[in-house]
Amino acid sequence: MKAALVRYAPLLILAAAWEAAVRSGVVSELVLPSLTDVVSAWVKLLRGGDLWLNTAASLYRTGAGLLLAIAVGGVLGITMAWWRPVNALASPLVEMLYPMPKSALIPVTALWLGFGDGSKILLIFLGCMLPVTLGAFNGARASDQALVWSSRSMGASRLRVLWDVVLPSALPEIMNGVRTALALSFVLLVSSELIAARSGLGYLIGFLGEGGVYDAMFAVVLTVAFLGFFADRVYQRLERRVLRWRE
Amino acid sequence: MAGTSQIVIDQVSHTYRPPRGREVLALQDVSLEVRGQEFIALLGPSGCGKSTLLYLVGGFLPATLGTIRVDGKPVSGPGPDRGIVFQHFALFPWKTVRANVLYGLEKLGLPRAERERRAQAFIDLVGLHGFEESYPSHLSGGMKQRAAIARTLAIDPEILLMDEPFGALDAQTRSLMQSELLGIWQRSPKTVIFVTHDVQEAVYLAERVVVMSARPGHVKAIVDTRFGCSDPSVFKSKAFVDKVDEIWGLVRDEALKAQGNQSP
Q: The domain A35-246 belongs to what CATH superfamily?
């Protein structure tokens, strides 16, 4: 409890400074509503149900996009590392797409799939697949020859070795890639919802902002920030658990 | 099968091409026969292709020329009849000691109770009782190699391929492991091909020592090294010391040649 207090002290100080700056009039309420107003707006949003619905919509999109990205990216990266033809075919595409700002695809996915869930899921999938692919590729390529041979000599088929040896060997790098993808997915989610959506947290931020309801808008911005933070924490726990053999 | 040739290596050559560079002839015209339940050592300077020869018998690499037969059948790939132990243990780091040993038993398709029983028996055999749930990263080098040996012995291969298995261990652990290996081999004989560059180790463990030349590797001499004694005191006996000297003489020339090869 005490450790947690010390750890989050900077946040508490920031919150206090925020409240003080607005109350004292140093910062105008038109630019930054006071923290207490934001919190009460947040409670109102929760009671009204809007926040729940839009959070659910957003989480569904991130979750689906990320899961697709992990599945396809993982398989693609490992097959690229294991079969030359796949690598020759896919690696120029991966290299070309990697540095591209994925937010540029927002209008494209909206054009293809409209304003609903599909366009967000596709965008997050496309944006988040590459870090996972690269992690899987590098991890799989570095898998130890002696482990592969051990597995083969104990009766595993060539294909089975991918599951038994190459995937677990690549797992630390894959999990690293997924963490990058997780952060990226929130960026893509909110920006695409701001631009082309009729639901979701990004949409809610844009809608409240245009309506001038700034305390509620800030409440949603903070919600997004906490969701991102919380997701990363949960992920780090999962990672430590899955990779506990490395300690 | 004792007494007959179980492994026949017939005029085998192996070339490989490094990622950048010209083809390298690693083995040239190697012929060797190994009897069932015989313990032979492949001895030679580093880079002579002795490990490559082991990998060819294991079926991990293809012979460029010539054939290798095991029990009369040409080797076309790896299989559980030929177990292998590597210098750097090659334990699955994400599996516990028990899960590592169970891995090969699962591949054999044994019933669960039988798998568990056999895994425990071999873990006990190599003295790892109490470390069943440890991950390899928590074990010392010697313990890792014990676990790897247990994993390979558990699937009961007729042939045991050992690639400098004690090369990464400290001197005390190495000599302990050597006599333990001999003990295991005497209790349940298997055909063993043991790769090493340590002359004493080769003479102590093997019934015959195959001395290989510098690259391209071929068989330079085969020396009979049976002493009928696995007691470590054999190290001090005259016969043992003379045998080590004799083989040292053969290996030294090749080691010097190998060094010459490396300079431009």
A: MetI-like (1.10.3720.10)
